[in-house]
Specification:
The protein is mostly helical. The protein contains 25 helices and no strands. Helix 14 runs antiparallel to helix 15, helix 20 runs antiparallel to helix 21 and helix 22 packs parallel to helix 24. It starts with a helix and ends with a helix. About 8% of the residues have low confidence.
Amino acid sequence: MDNFVIAVSRYRRRKYQSAIDLCDEMLKQNNLDQSVWILKCSSLIRNVYIDDIEVDEEGVGDILMDENALNPIARPGTSIQRPNSQAGQAIRPMSKQGRLQTGFARPVTHRQAGVQENIIKTARQGAQIGTARPMTQGGRYVRLGTASLFFGDQFIQVDKLDIKKLATKPVISRVLFDYLIYVDHNPRKALQLASEQAHQDWWWRERLGKAYFMLGMYRDAEKQFQGSLHLQQMIKTELQLAKVYLRFDQPTTSIKLYERALDRYPYESQFTIALARVYDLLNNQEKAIEYYKQSLMIDNNIEAVACIAAHHFYIDQPEISLQFYKRLVQLGINNAEVWNNLGLCCFYSGQYDLFYSCFERALQLGDDSTKSDIWYNLSHIFINLGDLGTATQCLKLCLCLNPQHAEAYNNIGVLHSKNGLFDKAKAQFQIANDKNSHLYEPVFNKAYLLYQQQEYSQAYTQVKLT
């Protein structure tokens, strides 16, 4: 059988590295074979391809160099920077940005505690001058695309390419553009190539908009995406245009765009999930859950199942939440987080014979950062069971694994105050406040403790801080 046919077969079976090796052998025999060149280039792209629609984290460099002017006093509910306030937030965990936890970790919301507030201040600090540069969106693509892949030699010498000549070859130019974006991570060169082609071709205008977006030129990206949609309605282009409006902090415009696209493609779950995410950012849980449920009518989406499960748990419906977490296990999700949530749902729904085994499974599967949260949840269970000594030990184990866990310090302070150790309790409340100033519980608990000790002036000072 011909080697090219074998390489194509490997490519179709997603054995990209094997296809690349075989293409290398054929190119050694004839380095001018364009079909083999295109096949190898396509295999390299697929080997490192990332769905960049889901990668929507804005790097520190993008924040520092952003020249787009946004309204600093936007009305609540019309800006991601100023989401709605919801009643009942005290019984549901919130992120450091002031948004409710959704039950699903996304790139935008899944950041380490305490990092976001000081990240811009320390962005330019390093061991040597000029060595610590802030991360940009392009740098994030490089890190995600090349973390587990290394090529000893460069397949294409990008600096020596004749862009105008390659632009006259339709097939090669399209493959080359994707190579420049996903493998070489060179959006500037890709922009030059797309600029030679983007006239009346919707594909090239969409790719031109992608290059502008990666370079942070959102206004130009918006024009190109709109022009591409005018020529050809495509789902991916609609999603990318909505991302541009989210970068402009215009969630209402993104919502209208998603709703129009959903009317056009009623069975496309990406739009329902995107709408739910935007409403989550705006703290509108009722609308978010409505669209999550709508997406489940179309497809078994793991994110929708997890978010609905978390929602029912925090509105005191652990029995319903338990069914959704069981569904996650049936879908093949087997990690510490799911088993931890199963244990909590079993306990609060009265199934005391099952929650121990769930937490044991969670501790077996979790790493240090996850185990700290598991021990923290176990401390709450033992508090409900009345075993305060075991609860204290669980909180100490949590702090051994994660010394930055402010909630654990706060709860240890509460347990100390119940045992009459008021000085130790004050110290724990102060440590919790130093670890995470976003929490109001340590400040309130310290103020209440001072009030009980008749230190009214200090208690008043602490109350004002809350």
